[in-house]
């Protein structure tokens, strides 16, 4: 198929075929008729460029991938895209390609399995009991993320996680020795893994024995399988077979080497028969589980419901905050978190060593550890990217809903995981506190500037930056209801006044009229998000004293606002009102879509500074006086 | 000072003081009068939250940090910000705080030392010969970046890199055992490092012996120093002393424990005398080197000039490309790279295992390896973030100018390093090929969408996306002349027509009139960057046939354009011409700053797809017909 597409990576699909065969046919539990079966064994092809291998497995194992789909490999609209895509092709357990993220997500899946088994299994009801397998290549292991993922798994003793390492000594630019001399065995052992070695990647019996042995250990298991990249091809053992089609001549020679004389895309009936037999055998396990789960659902309806829940129950939450009080939105968010955790036992998460600062520790729910796998606080360590990938893996697994948290500025370290959550339509929740210059003393390295814009630019995400505690309540209701995209909740370190206008704020609409002008057509509009909203309100008062009649719009989420009807958007921002000032402590250009060529933006287009938070904020122009001045200057311009 | 600021991290500065003392006073070469001395030993406080320790060292070692500066710790405008800032406080060798990046930059500094020593030292002229030290904490080592950095250093056998690990078993959220059980010794050995252990972090003799022994190995050295966080304080050994001021009572007890009875910020004269003595001793080495370098400059003026060069010599490059030809900008960039490398021996760099795809291999210049340290191609392996930090470290070191390259979409993995280049005003060069949907078959995980916007949002960077080969030439001239910010060059995988309008294009102005309207005041403006520019030109022709007289503006760099005078900007984009269409294969909202509320943007606000590049591009609306249609629709609106 790579030859037909004239594009793709033939190396890994050939050399890793034997291990994949053993795993899928001899060992894994799955059912092609129910690809999302909660208790299936998971398989993550972390080396996603080897997608041709996965599609072959799906085809022969009767998933919804036909020989015509196979022929359409890497073509627009096909079920067989260049890298495996979760939600696009049935049987693909995770979207992979960006290296090491598959491994990171597999760790998350194994965390979910461990946790859910302990939380939801009942005597005689082992409804959660499966393995998670990942196939990784050299590139995966060079990535820093692999370090984080391996250590999270080692620390949490994820005994049912098994990684197969296609050790072929070749990467895209040439032999691996060009760039690494790492001792992989020592490294994975240092991270708390069980290690074994299969010296011939074509030895089916050795592969099966190694995996079976790995299933028996209490530690996560790492099986290094020595292979020859593109085994059986004239280019075997070289980087020429890593990332490009081989060409017809080499394919011909390869066919000769394997003694394969059928036409391309043709297979004899006995091959199909063999696979049919495997699939039939597996269907027995599935039926047994299905019966068990039906009984479980009858006996434990609440638990079964939680396992199947797509949304978080936030309806009964009636928290509201009194105007006049002052509370940081990270603290308000924390109070909501506790309540949601109480009402939704399947809701959990953790932090990258900042739970005490992010205020995301679930106080009543214990820690997720080897001794207490039903604990609901995951200590990811200072491993932001590993956390992001693991949270995605937990949410891919299903049965629970997970969040991860750190300082907003460190979203940079895990940006690629947020992207992959968005691509996969996962409802991962990322909670970021310390959202602006107001961080203060820690200075420019710790003060987010461009992060708001950078994350808003990702397709299919909600970035929500609430103005106060009540908008935070509403934000959590949006988050709870979201099923198809990640939510990024951005909270303040510092206390913010609770506004009198935000009770039951329509945060789900993204932006709304917080405080209107006195006349129907305002003189102008002040648009702000987060901690700048109360400044806009104060400026409105000051402007009113000077006979400028302006409207204040709170815009906690640009993405949600942009998804509203044009009528709604025009009602909030009437097209003929062109005197608009946007105020936000972040890169300014994102607001041009609302302020246009004529409006003004009070933003931050340089790095922050170390000093007392309020002083830093003030010195960057975030004060009532500057808003008033900016509006009046704009007013005098046209 | 932490107590006075009522904010900061007291734990590490106290427990790591002995090792810092031994290192700075007994072993390191530096001169406070010439803080940027090329051959000084480098010291990177990777655990940047321990800045109080570094400022104390700078103060006692006669750097430009006074006792008043010390008293202003973490205050706005002070020389002693919350985290150490390169370029802000003399004697700070790198801006640190975002964890593990200090370690990554130290690796880059050691790469630079190794390379420059081999390239520039001459018989009797050992002008480059120094050590690089980094002090790391537990947090640094948990970060994935530490894995990449350790392995790059191990692979390149950077024998003059010495890392001191403040092993205090505590991180912000509590004891380290909450989140890690890694065997650090095994781990660093697996990465090819020499390892030693100092069991008592207060044992000055053991510390000195360990560092001296580390200096003698051919491998990079890792010294684990067991310490008790906040040693001597009532909170010693707990996370309470990690990240917050201790409070007056605890400070009082600590003072008692240490038998310290002077007032805060007061020291007896004998302490000053001891440090004066150290500094005087060091000045001898400095003078000797200075004499040597003067002679070297006389004997090898070209080499001395290269070591001191701030800009790259691009003046003599007269490459131009013939209109009508087709060439990918990654290929054009490659041709420029070779030429710049020829003319600038101090110019070098590498790729994250994609040099053959990025086209950034310097064909005549050998590989940087243990055996050939003067080679100029660095194989970083699949370690994008490690590469970014190392490139920053090389450029921080001085004496050479380095670039790093990978696929544009993987800029995500190293975003935090780009930010740190920008904060530090480093002229790091990041070359990203495969810049858009045109990547094609590899699909959504490999097709950049939001990356252009995300990187443009960072303060103090140039993002340059040339329209064709000739704009690429001009882009390299901008890059060569830049001394105070990173440049991000974004190139196409696919061939692009060489335009007849781009010869000597003013890319330094960021945006310019590529093809003007016939009349003085155009009917409208088409603004595009990169591979969309030639589509805009074709659309201009088509629109002309239909009697719409539009101007085409090429905008390879929004940042450079925004730095021009208002007059220039208005001459390119006259304020009264409101029929504007921007065309770029990336998140659309960044163009609102030029199209305003009335204009239109043809952008990409969803993820890409796997298929043949031209098909994907076309199906997302990037074709002449859609531009023409969009302009006419806009024309009919107002």
UniProtKB/TrEMBL annotation, chains A, B:
UniProt-listed SMART domains: Transket_pyr (SM00861)
Catalyzed chemical reaction(s): D-sedoheptulose 7-phosphate + D-glyceraldehyde 3-phosphate = aldehydo-D-ribose 5-phosphate + D-xylulose 5-phosphate
Record keywords: Magnesium, Metal-binding, Thiamine pyrophosphate, Transferase
EC main group: transferase
Originating organism: Lentilactobacillus rapi DSM 19907 = JCM 15042
Transketolase-like pyrimidine-binding domain boundaries: 327-498
Family statement drawn from the similarity comment of this UniProt entry: Belongs to the transketolase family.
Protein name: Transketolase
EC number: 2.2.1.1
Alphabetized NCBIfam families for the sequence: tktlase_bact
Record-linked Pfam families: Transket_pyr, Transketolase_C_1, Transketolase_N
Entry cofactors: Mg(2+); thiamine diphosphate
């Amino acid at each position: 198929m790579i030859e037909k597409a004239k594009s793709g990576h033939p190396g890994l699909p050939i050399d890793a075929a034997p291990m994949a065969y053993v795993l899928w046919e001899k060992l894994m539990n799955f059912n092609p008729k129910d690809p999302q079966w909660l208790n299936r064994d998971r398989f993550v092809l972390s080396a996603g460029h080897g997608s041709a291998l996965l599609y072959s497995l799906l085809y022969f194992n009767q998933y919804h991938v036909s020989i015509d789909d196979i022929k359409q490999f890497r073509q627009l609209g096909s079920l067989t895209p260049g890298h495996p895509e979760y939600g696009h092709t049935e049987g693909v357990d995770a979207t992979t390609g960006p290296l090491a993220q598959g491994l990171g997500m597999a760790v998350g899946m194994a965390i979910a399995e461990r946790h859910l088994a302990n939380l939801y299994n009942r005597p005689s009801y082992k409804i959660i009991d499966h393995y998670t397998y990942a196939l990784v290549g050299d590139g995966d292991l060079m990535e820093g993320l692999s370090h984080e993922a391996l250590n999270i798994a080692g620390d949490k003793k994820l005994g049912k996680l098994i990684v197969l390492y296609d050790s072929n000594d070749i990467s895209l630019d040439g032999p691996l020795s060009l760039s690494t001399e790492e001792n992989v065995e020592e490294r994975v052992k240092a991270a708390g893994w069980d290690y074994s070695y299969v010296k011939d990647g074509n030895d089916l019996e050795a592969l099966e024995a190694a995996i079976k042995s790995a299933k028996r250990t209490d530690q996560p298991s790492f099986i290094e399988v020595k292979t020859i990249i593109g085994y059986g091809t004239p280019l075997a053992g070289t980087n020429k077979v890593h990332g490009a089609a081989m060409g017809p001549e080499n394919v011909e020679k390869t066919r000769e080497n394997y003694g394969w004389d059928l036409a391309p895309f043709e297979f004899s009936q006995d091959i199909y028969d063999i696979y049919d037999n495997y699939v039939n055998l597996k269907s027995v396990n599935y039926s047994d589980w299905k019966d068990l789960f039906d009984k479980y659902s009858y006996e434990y309806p609440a638990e079964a419901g939680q396992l199947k829940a797509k949304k978080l129950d936030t309806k009964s939450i009636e928290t509201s905050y009194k105007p006049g009080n002052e509370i940081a939105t990270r603290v308000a968010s924390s109070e909501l978190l506790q309540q949601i955790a109480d009402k939704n036992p399947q809701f959990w998460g953790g932090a990258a060593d900042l739970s005490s600062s992010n205020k995301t520790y679930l106080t009543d729910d214990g820690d997720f550890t080897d001794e207490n796998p039903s604990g609901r606080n995951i200590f990811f360590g200072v491993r932001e990217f590993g956390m992001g990938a693991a949270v995605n893996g937990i949410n891919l697994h299903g049965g629970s809903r997970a969040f991860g948290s750190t300082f907003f500025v460190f979203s940079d370290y895990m940006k690629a995981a947020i992207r992959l959550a968005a691509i996969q339509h996962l409802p991962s929740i990322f909670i970021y506190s310390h959202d602006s210059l107001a961080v203060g003393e820690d200075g420019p390295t710790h003060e987010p500037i461009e992060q708001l814009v950078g994350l808003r630019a990702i397709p299919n995400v909600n970035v929500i930056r609430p103005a106060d505690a009540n908008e935070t309540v509403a934000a959590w209701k949006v988050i709870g209801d979201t099923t198809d995209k990640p939510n990024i909740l951005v909270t303040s370190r510092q206390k913010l006044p609770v506004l009198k206008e935000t009770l039951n704020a329509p945060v789900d609409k993204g932006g709304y009229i917080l405080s209107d002008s006195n006349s129907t057509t305002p003189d102008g509009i002040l648009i702000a998000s987060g901690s700048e909203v109360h400044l806009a309100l104060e400026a409105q008062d000051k402007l009113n004293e000077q006979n400028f009649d302006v409207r204040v719009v709170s815009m906690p989420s640009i993405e949600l606002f942009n998804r509203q009807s044009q009528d709604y958007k025009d009602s909030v921002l009437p097209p003929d009102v062109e005197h608009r000032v946007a105020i936000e402590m972040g890169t300014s250009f994102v607001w041009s879509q609302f302020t246009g060529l004529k409006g003004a933006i009070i933003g931050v287009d340089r790095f922050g500074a170390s000093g007392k938070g309020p002083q830093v904020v003030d010195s960057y122009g975030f004060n009532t006086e500057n808003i008033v001045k900016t509006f009046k200057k704009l007013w005098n311009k046209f």
